[in-house]
Inverse folding.
């Protein structure tokens, strides 16, 4: 006669869902105190800051595991990171835009290998920006953008791989030496509401390396130089736009971002992820404001670039 073996019992003294409970508590600790994750080794802290919104993906898995184990303790533990995630990011999901605004700003990393600059310019013009900033221009593509944008903008300044176009006059336009080649500039737009200093920057790329971790040395060095320029000038009303190769929450960027407010965080709806354009997972393209207020912020439809354009309406 064949007998069916009885189900294996959990080891005596081990509560159901112990692993799920432990994982939930650890996730809650990361959400509550991400600063506890050390910067070294491998700039792990910056990587954690950047990817923190995506911890939401772990919550359904933990909830399913708790229900499968029929563990009230595990269910209660899962409620901790859920509550903390909603506290940290729930407001981000709400639409914080307001009607009105004095001018529209658009910024876009156009990709130096963009095969159709004219089409990209046409798509950006559809947003009717008063100020348009472009990053990752190349000697081959920059003239194409200048020709395509000339009918809409009487004023522009282009240096190296970055440029700014404005319907308002620009003065004191110059390159900012944050790297051996030009990847940042500043200009003052003389708007009807008063002068507005515009900084356009494209910080160096970061990589996730198997042994070196989150490699940010070049970005952080350029960031320090850019921060010094902005602090020295201390313009009362200013914008910082461009590809910062880091999220607004990345602790490494705080010496710079702490001087500004993120248009997306204060006047957008959702996270506004921008890269990669096919399936954005992080917002590294920023519009940051100081001395003025964003009334709306959004990403724009994809172009032939690997980044999505970003737009914001601001009021004085």
């Amino acid at each position: 006669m064949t007998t069916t073996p009885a189900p294996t019992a959990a080891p005596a003294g081990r509560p159901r869902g112990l692993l799920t409970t432990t994982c939930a508590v650890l996730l809650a600790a990361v959400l509550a105190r991400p600063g506890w994750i050390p910067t070294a080794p491998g700039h792990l802290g910056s990587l954690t800051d950047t990817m923190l919104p995506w911890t939401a993906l772990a919550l359904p898995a933990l909830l399913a595991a708790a229900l499968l184990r029929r563990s009230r303790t595990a269910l209660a533990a899962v409620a901790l990171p859920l509550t903390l995630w909603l506290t940290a990011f729930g407001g981000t999901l709400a639409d914080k835009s307001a009607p009105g605004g004095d001018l529209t700003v658009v910024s876009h990393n156009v990709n130096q290998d963009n095969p159709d600059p004219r089409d990209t310019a046409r798509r950006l013009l559809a947003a009717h920006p008063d100020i348009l900033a472009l990053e990752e221009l190349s000697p081959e593509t920059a003239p194409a953008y200048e020709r395509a944008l000339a009918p809409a903008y009487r004023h522009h300044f282009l240096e190296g791989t970055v440029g700014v176009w404005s319907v308002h006059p620009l003065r004191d336009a110059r390159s900012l030496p944050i790297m051996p080649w030009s990847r940042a500039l500043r200009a003052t737009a003389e708007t009807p509401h008063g002068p507005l200093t515009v900084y356009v920057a494209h910080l160096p790329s970061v990589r996730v390396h198997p042994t070196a971790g989150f490699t940010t040395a070049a970005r952080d060095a350029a960031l320090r130089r850019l921060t010094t320029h902005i602090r020295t000038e201390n313009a009362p009303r200013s914008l910082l736009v461009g590809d910062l190769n880091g999220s607004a929450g990345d602790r490494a960027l705080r010496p710079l971002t702490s001087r500004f407010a993120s248009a997306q965080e204060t006047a957008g709806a959702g996270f506004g992820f921008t890269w990669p354009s096919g399936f954005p997972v992080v917002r590294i393209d920023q519009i940051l404001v100081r001395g003025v207020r964003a009334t709306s912020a959004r990403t724009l439809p994809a172009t032939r670039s690997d980044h999505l354009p970003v737009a914001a309406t601001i009021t004085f």
